[in-house]
Amino acid sequence: MLDEKRLVEKAIKAMENAYAPYSGFRVGACALASDGSEFTGSNIENASYGLTVCAERVALFKAYSEGKRNIVALAVAAGVDEPVSPCGACRQVILELAPEAIVLLSNRDGSKVMRTSPKELLPYGFKL
Q: What would the CATH number be for the domain defined by 4-121?
């Protein structure tokens, strides 16, 4: 059984590792593979803004780089009052790399969590 609260807590903890000197907007994520492996990610900014990588993509890319392709859940948290909303690029990556995952979007302390799916986040995602 998926421990949604624990996964959200790991995403909140991952925010501590964010490198966000330009925006100050810290984001953390935790991807859960079907075998129980967990992969956290934090947003990493760059002075050349286009080179910034979001927490969701870091977590999913870490999982894939370790050979974990069956992502069953992804939690995302940010230092905001309402559940965070992934950017468009992350929505596309989530749809492709974790199409059947449960997606948990959280605020800064986990007191507000929205449960959704990749298809709900991006109903007309790009597919080859």
A: 3.40.140.10
Domain residue ranges in the chain: 4-121
Tally of residues, the chain: 128
| All residues at 6 or more sequence positions from 90 whose CB lies less than 8 Å from its CB, including other chains | 54, 56, 57
Q: What are the residue numbers of the active site?
A: 56
Residue 83's contacts (CB-CB under 8 Å, 6 or more residues apart) are: 105, 106, 107, 112, 113, 114
Q: What is the pLDDT of residue 1?
A: 76
**What's the pTM value of the predicted model, to 2 decimals?**
0.96
List Cα–Cα distances, 73 to 25, 35, 39, 97, in angstroms: 23, 12, 11, 11
